[in-house]
Amino acid sequence: MCDKHLHDEIGDDHMSANLETPLRDDAFELSAEEKVEKIEADFRNIMETLGLDLTDDSLKGTPKRVAKMFVKEIFGGLLPERKPGMSTFENKYNYNQMLVEKDIVVYSTCEHHFLPIVGRAHVGYISKGKVIGLSKMNRIVEYYAKRPQVQERLTMQIVKAMQEALGTDDVACIVDAKHLCVNSRGIKDIESSTVTAEYGGAFKDNEQLRKEFIAYIGMKTPFNV
């Protein structure tokens, strides 16, 4: 592939060094309902440009449905009020080993082609006096996944949020996901997945700890009830 075509495929700043999601300064000036209204009009124009008949009963409600889905569902992580509370608790039982929440479902959207990213996140930490509710870990993953993303940034954002909540650097995250921009277009490789990892504190410094974390992820948990 020539350099020009490679650039067209990847785009600028594919590997952005910025940990934060790229947002304009006025990103939160419009209310959610105002955003829905504007996107509805924009998506109606897209459908009409494609030649679709929006008077058809099956299509006439689509612009509004898509707009609501964008703002309130698949990109709900762009709404600051959706950020989960980071309430923590004192580690009264003095559990000082690794805690891992594995197989957290990830539904995100590739910011280059706006196609789904679907996979699993595995998050671990070692308490330094605080613990966090298990469901909060799932909600942190969901919040940062529900926005246009690159998987590298998503992985780092999850770790940073956990570190800030727990007051410790000892946090790790691995994400294994399929990108439909690879699986359904372009190369159309339906088998490949992408794995990213971010290690902080003891996880970064201690190879044995990383191996233990990966071993926990590989454990199977059958539910034969």
TrEMBL record:
Swiss-Prot/TrEMBL catalytic activity: GTP + H2O = 7,8-dihydroneopterin 3'-triphosphate + formate + H(+)
InterPro entries named among the record's database cross-references: GTP-CH-I_C/QueF (IPR043133), GTP-CH-I_N (IPR043134), GTP_CycHdrlase_I (IPR001474), GTP_CycHdrlase_I_CS (IPR018234), GTP_CycHdrlase_I_dom (IPR020602)
Record-listed E.C. numbers: 3.5.4.16
The entry's keywords: GTP-binding, Hydrolase, Metal-binding, Nucleotide-binding, One-carbon metabolism, Zinc
SUPFAM superfamilies from the UniProt entry: Tetrahydrobiopterin biosynthesis enzymes-like (SSF55620)
GO MF annotations, alphabetized: GTP binding; GTP cyclohydrolase I activity; zinc ion binding
GO BP terms, alphabetized: one-carbon metabolic process; tetrahydrobiopterin biosynthetic process; tetrahydrofolate biosynthetic process
Quaternary structure (record): Homopolymer.
HAMAP family: FolE (MF_00223)
Xref: PROSITE patterns: GTP_CYCLOHYDROL_1_1, GTP_CYCLOHYDROL_1_2
Taxonomy, superkingdom: Bacteria
Pathway assigned to this chain's UniProt record: Cofactor biosynthesis; 7,8-dihydroneopterin triphosphate biosynthesis; 7,8-dihydroneopterin triphosphate from GTP: step 1/1
Name of the protein described by the UniProt record: GTP cyclohydrolase 1
Family membership noted in the UniProt record: Belongs to the GTP cyclohydrolase I family.
A GO-annotated cellular component: cytoplasm
Record flagged with keyword Nuclease: no
Ranges of residues in domain GTP cyclohydrolase I: 39-217
